[in-house]
Amino acid sequence: MMSNRKVALYIAMSLDGYIAKHDNDISFLNVVDQEGEDYGYSTFSPTIDTYIVGRKTYEVVVGMVGNFPQAKDFDCYVVTRSARENEHGVTFYQGDPGALVRELKSKPGKNIYCDGGAEIIQALMRENLVDIYIVSVIPYILGDGIRLFKGGTPEHQLTLIGSKQFSSGLVQLHYEKKSPDGES
After folding, report:
1. Where are the alpha helices (DSSP H) in 26-173?
2. Pair type for strands 158-165 and 171-177
C-alpha cells in the first residue's frame, strides 16, 4: 500500500534550461544570492523528511561546502552506480531510483525531495513518480550544459499551482502532475 508521500522536484535552472555546465559547475546560481532570501526553502523544507540526489550533485555540494548539509536535516540517499560505504548520515544507494522511491513511498513519512541530477529526474519521470515540480528559473543563459529535462523524457501534463517573482530576477514556478482523471 502506498502512503500519501509525494516526490517533490525542487531545483534551479538557467533561463535556457540547464542545471549545470558540462563540468558540473553550478556557480551561475550565485547571480541570485541575496542576504536573507532563501527562495521559499524555509517553507518547503518542513514538508519533507527524505532527500534523494545523484552522486555527481552530491560530490559538487561536498566540494563546495566540505560536507553534505542536508544530512543533518533529512534521511539522505545518494544514487550511485558504484558500491560505497554509507557515511555522515548519507545512504549510498546502488540501484534503480524508481525502486528506491516506490519503497520510500510505501513507508509513512513526509514528502521526498529530489534535487537531481538530470539522470535521476528522468528515471523518476519515466515511471511517473515525480508529483511536485518547483523550478526556479535563474536569469542567466548558460548556452550549453546539463539540461534539466533531457531528451527522451516522457510527456507530462502539469497543473500550475503558483508562480513567484523575486527582486533578483529569479522566477519560481510551482506545478503538480495531473492525475489520470485530469485532476491534480
Report:
1. 41-44, 55-65, 97-105, 118-126
2. antiparallel
* Separation CA 90–CA 1 (nearest Å): 26
Q: Say which DSSP state 45 is in.
A: G
Instruction: Work out whether strand 75-79 and strand 90-93 pair parallel, antiparallel, or are unpaired.
Output: parallel
pTM score over 0.85? yes
Give the model's pLDDT for residue 96: 94
- When pLDDT is averaged across residues 1-12 and rounded to a whole number, the result is 86
- Is the pLDDT at 161 greater than 60? The verdict is yes
Q: Buried b / exposed e across 84-112, counting CB within 10 Å, b at 16+?
A: eeeeeebebbeeebbebbeebbeeeebbb
Whole-angstrom distance, CA of residue 136 vs CA of residue 40: 10
Listing DSSP states for 82-103 in one string gives: S----BTTEEEE-S-HHHHHHH
Query: What is the share, in percent, of the chain residues with pLDDT greater than 70?
Result: 96
Q: How many residues does the chain have?
A: 184
Q: Which of 133, 160, 131 is nearest to 6 (CA)?
A: 131
The identity of residue 105, as a single letter, is K
